[in-house]
Design brief:
Helix content is 37%, strand content 16%. By secondary structure, the protein is α/β, with parallel strands linked by helices. The longest helix is centred in the C-terminal third of the chain and has 13 residues.
């Protein structure tokens, strides 16, 4: 099984929806932290919950943060929260949402704030 990521730089990579099983792969790939930007149940009851992914991430030795944001619009406050996570979390960080796009936008907004 392969973990499909898009690396933006040495500190962060993006991915679409990840599962609890993907956390061991993320650790094997060298990531030290995971940020989940997808609200629970956004895609219905079959979407993995943040709690399940967090438990697997911690078991795999990863730091985990949950910063759920809406797909169409991210606020400056959410960007500030992402910037704070990027400053605090061990790197490299793997951020994910449904497609990876909103995580990328959030990271770009955080960088614009001086991350």
């Amino acid at each position: 099984m392969d973990l499909h990521t898009h690396r933006l730089n040495q500190d962060i990579a993006l991915a679409g929806q990840l599962t609890a099983a993907d956390m061991a792969l993320a650790a094997q790939a060298g990531f030290r932290s995971v940020v989940n930007n997808r609200p629970d149940f956004e895609a219905g009851p079959d979407q993995p919950t943040s709690a399940a992914i967090e438990a697997a991430a911690r078991t795999a030795g990863l730091e985990y943060a949950y910063l759920p944001v809406a797909p169409g619009f991210q606020t400056p406050e959410e960007a500030q929260a992402m910037a704070a996570l990027m400053a605090r979390l061990p790197k490299p960080v793997l951020a994910f949402c449904r497609s990876g796009n909103r995580s990328g936008r959030l990271y770009a907004m955080a960088r614009a704030l001086g991350l």
